Amino acid sequence: MAREIDEAWIDEAIDRYRHIEDLRADFDKAVAAHTVSVHSPDQSIEVVVTAAGDIVDVRVHGSLHHRQPAEFAREIRTVVTSAAKAARWAREKLHGEVFGSFRTLEEH
Predict the structure, then answer these.
(1) Is 2 inside any structural domain?
(2) What CATH number is associated with residue 42?
(3) Residue 45: enclosing H or E segment and its boundaries?
(4) Which residues on neighbouring strands pair with residue 3, listed in sequence order?
(5) 34 contacts: CB under 8 Å, gap ≥ 6
(6) HSE of 65 in the Cβ direction (CA atoms, 13 Å)?
(7) What is the predicted pLDDT for the residue at 105?
(8) Are strands 35-39 and 55-60 parallel, antiparallel or unpaired?
(9) Which of 23, 35, 70, 102 is the most exposed place for a label (fewest CB within 10 A)?
(10) Cβ contacts of 85 within 8 Å, gap of 6 or more
(11) Is 1 within a domain?
(12) Mean pLDDT, 10 residues at a time, over the chain (108 residues)?
């Protein structure tokens, strides 16, 4: 028994695949370029992270002379953990912006 080939369906599937690839490339660029800045509770440490989760800068504001090493390390861990959460939030927000209007196959 011969199968019918629906050329229009195949063309549409190829177009959808290309569109998905274009959206994915846009998303990857946006995630790499978008940064979020997070501060320690006392504002003395700032971590800048991309939405991809890469730390691109760490800034210390003020003097370190009054800081105990254990306290300073604890603050750094806290702000880095917050930066990871902020990166995840930014990535999810960008994902919604890039793919939010994309219709699934079931919606066709």
Answers:
(1) no
(2) 3.30.1310.10
(3) strand 45-50
(4) none
(5) 50, 51, 90, 94
(6) 1
(7) 52
(8) unpaired
(9) 70
(10) none
(11) no
(12) 74 90 92 94 93 94 86 92 95 88 58
The single-letter code of the amino acid at 13 is: A
Tokens 């998905």 belong to residue? 20
Judge contact between 98 and 26, C-beta under 8 A: yes
Indicate the number of domains in the chain.
1
Copy the structure tokens of residue 108.
């066709």
- Contact by Cβ (8 Å): 58, 45: yes
Residue 50 structure tokens: 């991309």
Nearest to 53 by CA among 78, 99, 96, 89: 89
Q: Exposed (0-12), middle (13-18) or buried (19+): which is 90, by Cβ within 10 Å?
A: buried
